């Protein structure tokens, strides 16, 4: 396992060589955008402060691959990794492998975070992980191109987006054949579940499974949402969009080859970097409505301490440090990672680096959770069934109504006697 993953070691620069009782911890971090770089930097600051050593495992980019790796480690009760970076939908699935942080992290500290995210990290009264950063889907757009083609503001509806994207794409393709109107996450993985959840909710099609555990996907609005998204493929979105994850979409948009992009907040700071072709030309807005409402899927990552760690006390301290206000502020300024601590949304330095954090605050606080709560340990199967059904519609193998009807049957089989 270790050979398959890049390993970084961050050792405190202590003149005396080491502190008495110093320990070595390993944290598993993602590598999307600046994730890995900022994780390493934060861990190094804690190491320098405490005299401990931190090793960093680089986890796979795609969430599904990362989950499979974690499950393999945890099933083996491996002590190799002390702190895991967990997706907001994983606590119910992995709770038995993590220590309860309630009481180990002071309540006053816990209460500085968004209540909804703390709730998502709490399973049967157990605080599985501490929030590290939150996410919600956003619409990125080229401010210069909207102005060039006579548009005063970002689209409010998906129909408006399709019209605007087509007009801009047709105009730009006269000089750049590879230019796309709209890029997003169309690959069959958890990212597609996130995108498609936004389509469903924005069209009034529900959330696949409701809060009581009832399967609700088989409805006309859900079918319409999927058919609408399928109509974008090969019209305003490239045929290859069905192979895109976050980084593929960002690469196209950041290189100046797309008018609109759906992505997470992390793409902002990278889009404003010195080597970005669209620096200073990016706007951010809520994702469009399908007629019911604007909807953004709740994303984000947490830090949990493995039950199999041999240094749990130190691991808890590392989690508290990384999830604390100082580190969250650094991550917000340097990487556009949304804080989970409410007061940071009024911090002048954070707002200067990310102007949209203030204007789109309601997008982050009203983001729609995927149905990991009601489906508990079966969420991963539910999500895979959903993204596969959506993928079939996007690729033309199925129409929306047939897909949601079949999906409802498949979900009932997964549910069995209960979630």
From TrEMBL:
Signal: present as a keyword of the record? yes
Per the UniProt entry, the signal peptide is 1-20
Superkingdom:
Bacteria
The record's listing under SUPFAM superfamilies reads:
Periplasmic binding protein-like II
- A Pfam family for this UniProt protein? SBP_bac_1
Instruction: Report whether Transport shows up as a keyword of the record.
Output: yes
Keywords linked to the UniProt accession: Signal, Transport
PANTHER family found in the cross-reference section: ABC TRANSPORTER PERIPLASMIC-BINDING PROTEIN YCJN-RELATED, ARABINOSE-BINDING PROTEIN-RELATED
Give the family from UniProt: Belongs to the bacterial solute-binding protein 1 family.
For this entry, the protein name equals ABC transporter substrate-binding protein
- Give the source species: Deinococcus koreensis
Q: What is the lineage of its organism?
A: Bacteria, Thermotogati, Deinococcota, Deinococci, Deinococcales
